[in-house]
Write a structure and sequence with these properties.
By secondary structure, this protein is an alpha+beta fold. It has helices at about 15-35, 45-50, 55-60, 75-80, 85-90, 100-110, 155-170, 185-190, 200-205, 210, 215-225, 230-240, 245-255, 260-275, 340-350, 370-385, 400-410, 420-425, 445-450, and strands spanning about 35-40, 45, 65, 95, 120-130, 140-150, 175-180, 285, 300-305, 315-320, 335-340, 365-370, 390-395, 415-420, 430, 440. The two termini are about 50 Å apart.
């Protein structure tokens, strides 16, 4: 049987890992620049921690883990005959793979509240799993790079997240646009069209506008129980245009009778003011159709899209006022965003924006003709490594052609050839594999070559 891996997962070669680490290291360095500290949480969580936090659709995408041991032993005949998968799942599965990093983070905060300084600023770079249908830019196992600040309601935190987005994508060389909305505005819209109880259904539907189009969104809204009149009232909002200020002015008129809606308008106006004052160059667009279908968002919501590639959201997040409340620690507000490393990888690949050489790449390979030459090369290699130069010594005494082919296949930029003549002069013949130039070089000059 031919070996394979599950659909929606991938292996990564050394070249791919070097590129992925370039993304992780870039993002990590910006997180640290803003004073965030790293944590990690387990790959699996108790299902009681995960269920009910992502909405009905999210719950369906959770990977459940079968209880270890003889799970059937805990079931009687009547339970074994259950035809409803949800009923049976609750009996045979107590744990699941994490769906995102935010809910485990909330659980972490509650469990460790006595050890943390608030506001607590954390970042986390780990894989998550979703039982989704694999397609371009959508995987069942993928990495998220999350940054959150919890324990403050200040909009300065939202501003800093916008600045982090700007800095990360500037360093990666990707042109992006940040779309902004506020969950309170969406709640106000649901209120004024007479369907506050359908807020979640409305947001889940309109969040699909870019993917399935207006006609199908309207059909889904009707299917969820929204009246034809309410759907009609939504149409001007779904097609709102103009500058951010013009959109806010229009929506403020629509939401004048909604207290929660007007609070969302004011929060958005203040945040846009902070962004302008901070001279953020990143394009920021108020998009009232942006909903991000997660139940726990309560304030500002963000989504970032690449401008030069057809790709879904590559970063997203928002404000959550009481996520820790579900774990017994109410009234602790937080805000965060998540960078989708796998989609960022696909964007960088499509636009050919990865650096030609990475810090993980071998910089020089020693090519040797005999055991004495190999011993000589090993001594030099030790010196080079001591000053931070990634160095290899070819392990076998074989024909030079084979050793040079190895260097070519690995894109090693320099080859140091060691023969008896070079050893006699206490030098190596250094060949630039890109230009073909070669010259006798001593150890001091070789170290200097890689100093910067």
């Amino acid at each position: 049987m031919k070996p394979s891996i599950p659909k929606g997962t991938r292996d990564f070669s050394p070249v791919e890992m070097a590129r992925r680490n370039y993304i992780f290291n870039t993002i990590r360095s910006v997180f640290c620049l803003y004073g965030f500290q790293q944590i990690e949480t387990p790959a699996m969580e108790n299902l009681s921690t995960l269920m009910g936090k992502y909405g009905e659709e999210g719950d369906k995408l959770l990977f459940k883990i079968l209880n270890s041991g003889d799970w059937k032993a805990a079931l009687d005949d009547e339970q074994l005959e259950l035809h409803t998968s949800n009923q049976l799942t609750s009996k045979i599965s107590e744990k699941g793979l994490r769906y995102d990093l935010t809910v485990p983070f909330a659980r972490f905060v509650v469990q460790n509240r006595d050890k943390l300084q608030f506001p607590f600023r954390r970042y986390q770079i780990q894989p998550v799993w979703r039982a989704d249908r694999p397609q371009k830019g959508r995987y069942r196992e993928f990495y998220q790079c999350d940054v959150d600040v919890i324990g403050t309601k200040s909009l300065v935190s939202e501003l800093e997240l916008v600045q982090i987005v700007e800095e990360v994508y500037k360093r990666l060389g990707i042109n992006v646009c940040l779309k902004l909305n506020n969950r309170k505005i969406l709640a106000g819209i649901a209120e004024v069209i007479g369907a506050p109880e359908l807020l979640v259904d409305i947001t889940v539907a309109i969040d699909k506008l870019d993917k399935i189009g207006l006609e199908k969104v309207n059909a889904e809204l009707l299917d969820k129980g929204l009246s034809a009149r309410s759907v009609e009232q939504l149409q001007p909002i779904l097609s709102l245009s103009g500058t951010n200020e013009e959109k806010l002015t229009t929506i403020a008129e629509v939401l004048a009778s909604s207290q929660v809606g007007m609070l969302g308008v004011e929060e958005t106006r203040q945040l846009l003011g902070l962004i302008a004052h901070a001279e953020v160059k990143l394009p920021v667009e108020l998009d009232l159709t942006l909903a991000r279908g997660l139940n726990y968002y309560t304030g500002a919501i963000f989504e970032v899209k690449a401008l030069d590639v057809e790709m879904g959201s590559i970063t997203g997040g928002g404000r959550y006022d009481n996520l820790t409340g579900i774990f017994g620690m109410p009234d602790v507000s937080g805000v965060g965003i998540s960078f989708g490393a796998d989609r960022i990888y696909d964007v960088l690949t499509e636009l050919d924006l990865f650096p030609k050489h990475t810090t993980e790449q071998t910089q020089v390979l020693f090519v040797v003709f005999g055991e004495n030459e190999q011993q000589y090369a090993l001594t030099w290699a030790k010196q080079l490594r001591s000053v931070g130069v990634n160095t290899e010594v070819y392990p076998d005494v074989v024909k030079m052609k084979k050793q040079m082919s190895y260097a070519n296949d690995k894109n090693i930029p320099f080859v140091a050839v060691v023969g008896s003549d070079e050893m006699a002069q206490n030098k190596v013949m250094l060949k630039n594999m890109l230009t073909g130039e070669q010259q006798l070089t001593d150890l001091h000059d070789l170290c200097l070559l890689f100093k910067d």
